[in-house]
Design brief:
- The chain folds into 2 domains: 268 residues, Rossmann fold (3-Layer(aba) Sandwich), CATH 3.40.50; 202 residues, no CATH class.
- Strands 1-2-3-5-4-6-7-10-11-12 form a 10-stranded mixed β-sheet, with helices on both faces.
- The chain starts with 17 loop residues before the first helix and ends in a 5-residue tail after the last strand.
- The chain is an alpha/beta fold and 518 residues long.
- 45% of the residues lie in helices and 13% in strands.
Length: 518
């Protein structure tokens, strides 16, 4: 869940009037050939009303990133009944190809989560991958439900704090009842504040938004880059509209071959693996800097002592509260990326050991690490999509048993199992049509995954790779980072750049070793 892949941007002038003439020739979501393909996996949407297909995108410089242009796209609330209910707004952005003479087309980006915002991501992406930015118009968007698009609302900040209060490891009858009650309250809050919107916050609906965006850009085909949850958006889009895909890079893959429940049952294991096999040894090797313990066992014992102390007496300083759940949450977030996250977490941990005496830099790190993970806005989209896309087990006794087992085996993320699954157990039964990813009709798709990725774990990526026939999996060894491109691994960059810029897909799966940090 979530993704910490660096954000990105955009740039370019308005669509010329000639684009309107192209729309007659550019297919729109699930009409003609695309409908025939989509019916094998999901219900086809009706023809797109002119209100959507003939709109013009009024591009203006983005207020938050002037190198990009922003516009607002109107989309149906429900693609399967496009004339029912008020429109939704989807905020879109673009960065024009910096070398128009060598322009290859349009590369669409999406954000992870679910719950991340993607509007400004083309900016950072182009700065990190300038050769791709020279050859493509790189475009992004805030998916329905988040950011500058029509947003879902589930909780107030106070309710959000209450949801994460206490200690998810506690398993007395009273504690279980409190957790279940909070999960039910969160689901009820979503229904109360966003009820008429919630059923339409799904990956399948978002994929259809992407195809409208493609058509309004005047493109017959698009290329696509998506990290984390955006791999699922890409896989769904490719399933519904395979003839509209030129090239596709899926980076750090969710288990889009199965259900959200199946995928999330594997995350406690993968977060614990990353914590114990990567972070703890890293911190033990730097005892001279952080003084947290010289062996893995000493570091883990130190971390557990601090967690127990926060259980008995949470740290409260102004708007910052750090209890055991916040310690877990901050640790979960920090282990996504080693180069940035590991030092930040280590510094923050030292501050917790002596908060009054900690230096200002360490205290600031602790506020970032333990005070800024997730948000009410993020969770509104996260639960809407994960609870809506695929069915969930609704028996809370089952989730209580799983939560107890996962807490014992993989406590870092396993302790929150009941709290998170309890929301989807209380959610209205999903009505989204199933999408079965097969890879039929697609060009070769490129998939990237590290072996110790904590959020989009390698085992699920391999399963997704098998489902997406004809794909090529690039396995990044000696690494657990979430989000591999663009990044420092020259092997990964060369493979992806060759694919996007020259159309050269690997002939078979391959591995890219990670450079060893000093």
């Amino acid at each position: 869940m979530n993704d910490s892949v660096p954000s990105t941007r955009r740039r370019r002038g308005p669509l010329v009037a000639a684009a309107a003439a192209l729309l007659a020739a550019v297919a729109l979501p699930t009409t003609g050939a695309s409908a025939a393909t989509a019916t094998t996996t999901t219900a086809a949407a009706p023809a797109v009303p002119a209100h959507y297909s003939q709109q013009r995108l009024a591009w203006q410089p983005c207020a938050e990133a002037p190198a990009l242009e922003c516009a607002t796209m109107a989309v149906p609330r429900d693609w399967h009944h496009p004339n029912n209910g008020p429109d939704l707004s989807v905020a879109v952005s673009r960065h024009r190809a910096t070398d128009p003479a060598q322009r290859r087309g349009t590369l669409v980006m999406a954000a992870g989560g679910p719950g991340g915002t993607g509007l400004l991501r083309p900016d950072g992406f182009v700065r990190s991958a300038p050769a791709v930015g020279a050859a493509y118009d790189v475009v992004g968007f805030d998916q329905r439900g988040v950011g500058h698009s029509t947003r879902a609302v589930c909780q107030t900040p106070e309710e959000f704090q209450a949801f994460f209060a206490g200690d998810f490891r506690d398993d007395s009858p009273a504690d279980r009842a409190r957790v279940i009650d909070n999960s039910r309250r969160l689901a009820a809050g979503c229904a109360q504040r966003s009820g008429d919107l919630l059923p339409y916050l799904t990956t399948e609906q978002t994929a259809r938004d992407v195809d409208l965006f493609r058509a309004l850009l005047g493109e017959r085909r698009i290329s696509y880059y998506g990290p984390s949850y955006a791999t699922m958006i890409g896989a769904y889009y490719a399933t519904l509209f395979p003839q509209r895909v030129e090239r596709m890079v899926l980076d750090s893959n969710v288990g889009f071959a199965g259900s959200w429940e199946q995928f999330q049952l594997g995350q406690p294991m993968s977060f614990q693996r990353r914590f114990e096999e990567d972070f703890l040894p890293w911190l033990a090797a730097r005892d001279g800097t952080y003084h947290y313990g010289g062996t893995v066992a000493e570091v883990k014992a130190h971390w557990e002592r601090r967690r127990a102390a926060l259980h008995d007496s949470p740290l409260v300083d102004g708007t910052l509260t750090v209890g055991p759940n916040q310690l877990d949450n901050g640790t979960v977030q920090a282990v996504y990326r080693a180069s940035e996250g590991f030092p930040a977490l280590a510094t923050a941990l030292t501050a917790l050991d002596d908060w009054p005496g900690a230096n200002p830099g360490a205290r600031a790190a602790a506020r970032l690490v333990f005070g800024q993970y997730l948000s009410p806005e993020f969770l509104a989209e996260y639960f809407a999509v994960t609870c809506n896309d695929t069915p969930w087990t609704r028996d809370l006794d089952t989730w209580a048993e799983r939560g107890a087992e996962f807490t014992a085996r993989w406590p870092l993320a396993g302790a929150r199992t009941l709290a998170f699954a309890g929301v989807c157990a209380a959610w209205p039964a999903p009505t989204a049509p199933p999408v079965r990813v097969t890879g039929a009709g697609l060009p070769t798709t490129l998939m990237l995954n590290s072996v110790h990725d904590p959020a989009t774990y390698y085992e699920a990526a391999r399963s997704a790779h098998r489902a997406l026939r004809g794909s090529r999996l690039v396995t990044v060894t000696g690494n657990g980072d979430h989000g591999q491109y663009p990044g420092p691994n020259t092997c990964v960059r060369e493979v992806v750049d060759s694919y996007l810029l020259a159309g050269r897909a690997p002939a078979h799966d391959l591995s890219c070793p990670s450079p060893q940090a000093g």
